[in-house]
Amino acid sequence: MDVKHYMQQLGQQARQAGREISKADSGRKNLALLKIAEALSASSAELARENQKDLQAGKDNGLDAASLDRLELTPSRIEAMVEGLNQVAALPDPVGEISQLSYRPSGIQVGQMRVPLGVIGIIYESRPNVTIDAAALCLKAGNACILRGGSESIHSNRAIAQCIGKGLAEAGLPLAAVQVVETTDRAAVGELITMKDYVDVIVPRGGKSLIERISAEATIPVIKHLDGICHVYIDGKADIDKAVAIAMNAKTHRYGVCNAMETLLVAESIAGQVLPILAEKYAEKGVELRGCLRTCSLVKKAVRATEADWHTEYLAPILSIKIVADIDEAIAHINQYSSAHTEAIVTEDYTLARRFLREVDSSSVMVNASTRFADGFEYGLGAEIGISTDKLHARGPVGLEGLTSLKYIVLGDGHIRQ
Amino acid sequence: MDVKHYMQQLGQQARQAGREISKADSGRKNLALLKIAEALSASSAELARENQKDLQAGKDNGLDAASLDRLELTPSRIEAMVEGLNQVAALPDPVGEISQLSYRPSGIQVGQMRVPLGVIGIIYESRPNVTIDAAALCLKAGNACILRGGSESIHSNRAIAQCIGKGLAEAGLPLAAVQVVETTDRAAVGELITMKDYVDVIVPRGGKSLIERISAEATIPVIKHLDGICHVYIDGKADIDKAVAIAMNAKTHRYGVCNAMETLLVAESIAGQVLPILAEKYAEKGVELRGCLRTCSLVKKAVRATEADWHTEYLAPILSIKIVADIDEAIAHINQYSSAHTEAIVTEDYTLARRFLREVDSSSVMVNASTRFADGFEYGLGAEIGISTDKLHARGPVGLEGLTSLKYIVLGDGHIRQ
């Protein structure tokens, strides 16, 4: 197969389908989502069978247990995909929404209309459920999409693509609105991220190395997040109970997620009270502590953190801890080491809370709440296609709105410019 | 001078100043704008003297009359810069504005806060007034900026930079919040558009070739517009008077602007009525007409348009005209040839107006209004740094909001994720 030619063809078809889907009314898009859900439910045996091929190939190729787990389509995961489709169908349609329409002194009315981006390219790794999640969000936002999953999940993705095609056909929408790349050739990715004429934005989902490579090579805008080096700062005026609850939740609720805390900053005036309590609780959970010099003198079990620790997203039961003089030092540390994902302060001080909110330049900034809340569902977006640590276009959890743009509309009655 | 080192230094200083200015309150930013305006007024003799050096050098180097005109700082242009500063000072401060703050089922409050982008690099050609316009908008939006004007206006820009520095100092803001690149070495641009660590977004202002080159070479996001191939479609249900007024205004109000009409599409059912009237009026204005075969049979003075005409932004008294069957053919033509800047329909038909608004994918879409309204001032943005024909981040006229981003804020009371 000529990969370049194949991808160009997908691109042309996506561009054409994108024009169609951008005009589709909400009822038809929702019908497609519900029909895809029905097709998935009806095909669960088939999906399990195809998934089994991927799992077997994965075992044969020596995939590790974590990857095999991500790859598996259990009945409850199929059910979750069905549930996700129903949820996205229930969300309000963002497309065509008109805002801020008002009269100008010239007599024209000016407002903004929310419009689809066009064609979205999604590149992801082993989880086959991303195929459904991404397709559902793109479809609802009026975009065509080209989905490039990991080669290890190709059979599963093809089976899911069958269900998507069935749902689109039953709703009378073009099949090319959602296309799954059928080749595992890596050159397909290189083509996808440089087809400027056919693809408007790339959303990579996966490990840091995948995202870095795609960002470096793409000539199309990329909505990405690289790291989640999230901080919690326990201020001198913190409520100890809240501080302990938040620091524990942010680190230990789940370890392998981007919104988990990786570095804890503690004001020196409260460190003696709060760190011993936390150290004991972290020990119960088996969390390894790496601290600054002063932390190590307070917490005997802590080992010395190195410069590299402040830069590291552990995604594991490891936490770095630094004692700081005050909020200034905390914010300076965050500005230097944070990946601009999510930071939280724990304080009862009104003025410091207000300062932290304004001055910390991350995609989510929190007061007295766990960093684990940085999530599209928790924020009420209904669903998310990822979390952006970029500043332009979309920042933080990206839901339907992040997959749209705004155009200006002008209504007149024969108005001309003087 | 080591250009790379010099630019890196500007970048570091801008990054630091950006942090300061992002925290500056509205009063201080407005004070700086007003003090810069005062300094400009007080320095008009000095500005004229420095501008004279640029004009003389321009003449010596054989600059054409149009470029020399753009370069000139007349008293009324200095007055316009002062007026612009006062206007930007009077605009509401976008920074820190919190929207959509609401309670979620978990008990946390989630909202979005408008925040500066950080450091903006502006690259422009001969007009020295851009130095003030760009600096004012960046400053008000809480950003630091690095301004790289054309080498032909270096003396004027340096003199303006003196005034900016004076205003910043009087308001107690860091001087590096606005830096004018003092070297005319072209390598400075190459450095500016690739200093990822220090610059967050590039805004090029100038001719298409400048913008294409910068877009191709930049590794930093670019807010740009390339072309303004704007269309007016006169529908079969158009009011003839409105159609004539709009088609004349869109083409002849000003020729060299990006929101001027370049191609007129006319429904065949009305062409016989409207084209002869328009042809006569265009002839009075000296506008050359290039038409499709059917246009030429209706309008004797029209010459045959070639395929290239539909792709061309004339920026001159030339208009291409095509007779189309209906709105479907009009939209198809626009989708194929438009630069996605601004398109207008003239019609009294409710359903077609609604369709045109939804289906035409340009940064401004109008009904019964002249394309010349596509402008930040006319839209009520107060000022504009340019017009974006991109879809991501900013689309259409870019004002203060386009120089900001949104971060999520979360307010809790010790909330943790279940």
UniProtKB/TrEMBL annotation, chains A, B:
Compartments (UniProt record): Cytoplasm
UniProt organism field: Methylomonas rapida
Domain Aldehyde dehydrogenase stretches: 11-283, 301-374
Record GO terms (molecular function): glutamate-5-semialdehyde dehydrogenase activity
Claim: Amino-acid biosynthesis is one of the keywords in the record: yes
Domain of life: Bacteria
Name of the protein described by the UniProt record: Gamma-glutamyl phosphate reductase
Gene: proA
Reaction(s) this enzyme catalyzes, per UniProt: L-glutamate 5-semialdehyde + phosphate + NADP(+) = L-glutamyl 5-phosphate + NADPH + H(+)
Lineage: Bacteria, Pseudomonadati, Pseudomonadota, Gammaproteobacteria, Methylococcales
